[in-house]
User: Fold these one by one.
Assistant:
Number 1:
Amino acid sequence: MASTAGLRWGLDAYTSRRFTVSAHAVDSPVLPNTAFRRWFDEHRRANQFTVHRIPFDELVGWRFEDGTGNLVHDSGKFFSVEGLDVHTDWGDRGAWMQPIINQPEIGILGIVVKEFDGILHCLMQAKMEPGNLDSVQLSPTVQATRSNYTGVHRGRSIRYLEYFLPPRRGDVVIDSLQSEQGAWFLHKRNRNMVVEVTEDIPLHDDFCWLTIGQIHQLLCQDNLVNMDSRTVLACIPFDAPNGGPREPARGPYRESLLRSFSAGAQQSLHSTGEILSWLTDAKSRHELIQRTVPLREVKHWYRTPDEIGHEMGKYFTVIAADVSASNREMTRWTQPLLAPVERGLVAFLARPIDGVLHLLMQAKTEAGVFDFTELAPTVQCMPGNTGDLPVHRRPRYLDVVLGADPAAIRYDVVQSEEGGRFYHADNRYQIVEVGEDFPLDVPDEYRWMTVRQVTELLQHSNYVNIQARSLLAGVHTTW
Amino acid sequence: MASTAGLRWGLDAYTSRRFTVSAHAVDSPVLPNTAFRRWFDEHRRANQFTVHRIPFDELVGWRFEDGTGNLVHDSGKFFSVEGLDVHTDWGDRGAWMQPIINQPEIGILGIVVKEFDGILHCLMQAKMEPGNLDSVQLSPTVQATRSNYTGVHRGRSIRYLEYFLPPRRGDVVIDSLQSEQGAWFLHKRNRNMVVEVTEDIPLHDDFCWLTIGQIHQLLCQDNLVNMDSRTVLACIPFDAPNGGPREPARGPYRESLLRSFSAGAQQSLHSTGEILSWLTDAKSRHELIQRTVPLREVKHWYRTPDEIGHEMGKYFTVIAADVSASNREMTRWTQPLLAPVERGLVAFLARPIDGVLHLLMQAKTEAGVFDFTELAPTVQCMPGNTGDLPVHRRPRYLDVVLGADPAAIRYDVVQSEEGGRFYHADNRYQIVEVGEDFPLDVPDEYRWMTVRQVTELLQHSNYVNIQARSLLAGVHTTW
């Protein structure tokens, strides 16, 4: 691979790239912050589009299948909404049925990176999605389902796709399958990629070059960097700067975070082997049975002409939408969308242990998870759903997050989930620092891990869930 | 973890144990080789048992389920024989249906290790399995299905199980889920463990302490070390000795093998990142659809009163057996067994690349694989099944293995597959060295990897298949 002076990607075993969080330009000679803001606002203005709810029977190309009642596309592609029957003995969850999105094909979420004036830039896209709260958000260079890029969608060809498919014109620095929302998707995964190129690349409309430092600033704004960008950015392994701090002292939180990026086995509360053994133990001794069932057999969910929902108004509804837009693959279409009933809360508790910041990770089992459990943030819930639960089933540590001293909140941003499938789905993402008096001893579903340990596991599939990855991208901004 | 002077386990990130292949005593002060041989022969003699085939309707507790025709146990536990409908666009395989064993629960394969006189010993068991060719083989300390140890089996309690279940009395050094035969099992995995203890352990009859050096010698004999032992042994990461060779020169093959145990990223033809990207690419761009179907709907397979088989006599049959034995959990029982129609051939081509031995790994998709594909040996086939295939579908490199110069064959042993499910199933396992004139350029389903790279992936699930692990245990003996 080509050398990139001044940039340091971590984790030698996987890539020769090294990347240092503090080396990032927070402005760019290619597209300075002020120019980006103008460019982005223009795209938001120019991409006027309307999304309005319609009854299911006005969907074009979609129907409720005879017999099963599953919501399917006539082509048999894209995705379907089916029923799932779940049984587990993990975490006091028991058994339940629910609608779930079944989309077995693997899409590509890919960012092209390239140096300009010795500074690494990411090729980002201003992309409209029908479910987005703020219309256009910043997406990866390529964000394509397999149906998109193999032609089922009959859309325009995908820009820059050639950098992600063989024969590939660039060096792969990140390439792994990562899961999406386990509560809403059955076994869904996308391919998360970063590819570095050296050749000249034509800059199409809707695309811009930004430094990682600039993107980190944008990650601190609500609903701007989309979920697909966040998951790819989360997979990038950062190192602490070589030879000690080159920055002015930034306080003990930031110093412990820098150490956490590079922490070796001796600096972690548990070795990675112990973490993997803990997950193996959970998978071996507990049960998760996932069985797809006809949607019309799902108990406690109703269907009206324009909505599928839970009889107590919980969780989410499935709706149908008519979408008109100017610059998407097709200019008008209809599709089902999943609409959560409220904003979620996603939070890490972060605690320095011997001067190295550790995140409190939770082994969480969700309906559609691929391999029993994944590492989730400390808290991941819909707070309104939890009010009527008995105390022992309320999300653990929710009270710590809700009662946190504002000075201890290191990150607090509302971010949207994927607008191609979800309607106005967002979460409040928080990182809450707790002190060295916070108990190290935690229940068996939780483990303290360094940023480096979580990042190492991201070289593999199905260890870290989408909410944890979104929030990990936020952690990178708090140094 | 406790320190163990003189022993070196590899892969710091996962465990503090380090283990050097050349440090192993090939004899033991606890049980010298001659005494072991006497002990083992006595157990083979003492464990007389009979296995004879019976018609399916003489099975006790098993029946063909109404409607589906699946072969199931009355308890709903153990395993069932069902149908599987498979479609894939990988490797010219197309679509087919077959019977498959469905055993969703995860068992434990665990070896207790302990130092005696500063030398690490493994607690091994002389264990009879009904399908074994030579009755008793050497098994791990614990080899138990979940039904075994949670009581469904109604058998005696499992010796030494307490070292593998919490609260655990020992240090975990290996703990990962590993797959079993993808052609015969649907998504089957077992928990592979090594636990080190320091306390005194009572030595029960049927158990013995052996050094890893002794076990490596036994791995060079036919049908002696069982499959469950081999998979656990394969997961142990070995280092080359520190400070250069401490052994007399053993020739270029052995020197290149020692380098392969410890090879860093610079000494591997591909980085581990490139290997993972190659697997991600295969999983993303190809399709494997696995759908369970009623056994009686499986096309091209017949059922008689005492056999389920393929109409052309290929692959395997499913039979029923009556088993009487003296020291198993129960003294007499009946069960179905899967009987392959011929002996398989499993081989690595091994080639030094710049002085570092590389194994030629194949990304192989089998009917019941958990996540699309796993790394398999260079050749893995039933040679008799391949005779009538068109030339372009015959197993690649089979001719190289069959035509190898005997001096280039570094390992050549017949090993049994799991005797609890398979009847007289064995493979000829071979390691064939090829010279530096052998092409580095290989088809896209193949990659050259160092021993260290394969071993690193064994810390995770579903990267390396059971045949490759069995043969990797053999590689460790050839230094």
Number 2:
Amino acid sequence: MSQFSPPACPVPHEGADRILLAHGEGGRLMRRLIRDVFLPALDHPQLRARADGACLPPVEGTPVVSTDSFVVSPLFFPGGSIGSLAVYGTVNDLAVCGAEPLYISVAWIVEEGLPVAVLSRIVEDLARAARTCAVSVVTADTKVVPNGAADQVFLTTTGIGRLRPGIQWDVQRVCVGDRIVVSGPIGDHGIAVLAARGTLGLELDLASDSAPLHELIGATLAHSPGVHFVRDPTRGGVAAVLHEVTEAAQVTLEIEEAAVPVRDPVRSACEILGLDPLYVACEGRLVAFVSPESASSIVRLLQSHPLGLRAASIGQVTGRGLAEVHVRSPLGALRVLDEPAGAPLPRIC
Amino acid sequence: MSQFSPPACPVPHEGADRILLAHGEGGRLMRRLIRDVFLPALDHPQLRARADGACLPPVEGTPVVSTDSFVVSPLFFPGGSIGSLAVYGTVNDLAVCGAEPLYISVAWIVEEGLPVAVLSRIVEDLARAARTCAVSVVTADTKVVPNGAADQVFLTTTGIGRLRPGIQWDVQRVCVGDRIVVSGPIGDHGIAVLAARGTLGLELDLASDSAPLHELIGATLAHSPGVHFVRDPTRGGVAAVLHEVTEAAQVTLEIEEAAVPVRDPVRSACEILGLDPLYVACEGRLVAFVSPESASSIVRLLQSHPLGLRAASIGQVTGRGLAEVHVRSPLGALRVLDEPAGAPLPRIC
């Protein structure tokens, strides 16, 4: 895991190689931190103006806004870091609403004593992820709390996007007969982060699936008739999305366990840990409820995109009224999939 | 201080009177927390839809966005709480940009073990503050971190507003001769929060000035010619704003110490603590740089509003090139006001 440890060489910062309380106090050290660490990575005219807020160009059509905090531990893991996750996570929340992401704000809560080099690396990851998504970081805030009052770094990103014309995805449009499609293998993120903690004694050949979904959606679902509802299965995994739909639309769902794509390392780790992959978080997958007529063409479309190579139809909406999720085992037995209630995987995102 | 302690009676929440890790895991307990604690206080069609993001009505003109985290300790203090502060703080960042606030998002990072009653009280304060400002809480997120990984609650709010037509406030418009106006006594918030910690042995008759500034600004500065730049003096106090202006506009400022409004309890506390009130945070005051011709009418206008009763002109821009802040004492001596560098008041907001 050594390639995922923070860099050893401290970046000097006015004599301080660790974040001090004074870096959060609105004075000289904060201005220098912004100038030396944040602005070089995140250069944008709005940020450079350093006003209390950013004036944006007019947003045509329907603006969409989403916010998420990120408290993942460890900060760096195979396939990403809290920096990239904080961008992709919020971009994905906009994307599954049918929006194109445009702007992002970033609020940092930093624990006193964090090495400046670690902060710099997170800023760079965040900046790279924002460039990948073509979203501008337009405004930011940094607070420093005393040692022990937070664990290293927490990030909160808020994204602003524009609803793609013609999109009307809504959980209330889910109806009996709809097919349930996932865009790829599930649970990679959750298991990769767990393994990166090093406390499980697991050495896995596995990276998080953390990735932005707006291009995949723009190239596929955004132009497909028959899409009723889209969601990214993060905390609580696919099971949480399924239960959200059963409750909101009052429908019963049936999942074919054998059809659910799961990578071997995830399956093995879940067996060892006593977890069901359906409960494990993804950070670069989507679940779509689509009409039966459109399902196979949508799966093929998804499979034609690099982020959807292993897309699959995994089940369907079987009835109305009884809000339950059933899973059919490879041998044909039907069991009820409980809603996630406990906390098997805290601080996964 | 007993009236500012959390309520003693726990609000039952499915058997749990404290926040569990499971409340942050995307499953049943999280849905019930949203249903039982957040939605009753913050009811809004967008929130009720519980999508990953909120679709907003089109924003006419120039959208303005601002984000801030709030880590204040203690959570409750005379004159406010982290809940009201998180709304007013972000509303004020929009207001001093010249924007009318419209929408707000709220991200909660909650420490495992927080009494649900404390969370509920913060939610209610936040909801009341949002109603006061006529801003809608349109989307939210909640993460729970294990006991010890955060200190009780951190909030991050992001505000979206609309720039008032005709406003062009910019630090680059500050010029020699400009008068520096404050809207009221400074330092109330910082000293009230310090006193509420109970560790200073100070018993003061003082409440935070925490308040929203958009109505004051809408009724006064927004319609006044000669306003060049407006800022709210939070972390680092008025001194931080002055230094921000000197650096950005490359001007020298001179403050008349005797003209700066300071309440007696703030002055006494500052003397005991060895603090200069110019460095102490406000949360409901503004500093404006205005043309000399307009200064006295602007001060009178501010004084005609309940939030500006003790507005005063406290100094002026005296020269260009040498970026320094000078303070003239009541006896006429001139001293240099250093930029805040240390951290006299951590977790003040």
